[in-house]
Amino acid sequence: MAQPLPRPADLVLVAFLPQPRDLEIARVLGWYRIPLATAPKVIGVDWLAFYQPAAFGEAHRWRVEWAAPVEGYELVRRRELFRDEPNHPRAEEEYYKVQLGPLVRLPRPILAGRWRRFTFLYTTGERLLAAETLHDLVVRDDERRLLWQALRERAERPYRAQTTQGEVPPEILAWLLLNPPREGE
Asked: I need a labelling partner for 125 at 20 to 30 A (CA). Which of 7, 101, 142, 185 fits?
């Protein structure tokens, strides 16, 4: 059974995914982290889509290939996300831990073209599924007013916290670090 894709009116946040390890965390553990200090104004979206930079290698860099439905989020310290890194320089910094549903491969990758540097971009499900390049994700004109209205409404909603079902053992996190996905996975 195929996983559902975003609906046309769904609010989508395209987010920077620094390393392949972060994609594995999203796939296996079902969460994505956003530093509070650099977070976009609205986290309560319907979907996250992931922009993959050069760290993903020749075949998967500078594109969006994956998305996941957002199931909730909570504010935590980095040390709570990575219990095996208690002495990390940012261990005490706050992060949004965005709880995700299953990752879905988009029908076709969205290529960066010449636009390769960004952190977050809001778009719609309709644009996400129709886009060929990142430039196609940008919402314009009347559609832009509707997007910002939806973002304002989301910003006014009460905080949606959802906690994880139990803790993830450090050995699983260590395994993710030592076993990045191979080409074609």
From this structure: 185
Look at residue 1 and tell me if it is in a domain: no
Distance CA 20, CA 176 (A): 10
Residue 83 sits at φ, ψ, to 5 deg, of -65, -20
pLDDT of residue 166: 45
Look at residue 108 and give its three-state secondary structure.
strand
Total domains present in the chain: 1
d(CA 131, CA 109): 9
| 39, 73 contact by CB (below 8 A) | no
pLDDT of residue 113: 83
Residue 22: domain span? 11-178
For residue 57, being part of any structural domain is answered with yes
Specify the CATH number for the domain of residue 148. 2.30.130.30
For residue 143, the SS3 value is helix
Question: Per-block average pLDDT, block size 10, for the chain (185 residues)?
Answer: 85 96 97 95 94 95 97 95 93 96 97 83 95 92 70 64 47 53 49
Q: Given this model, what pLDDT does residue 170 score?
A: 55
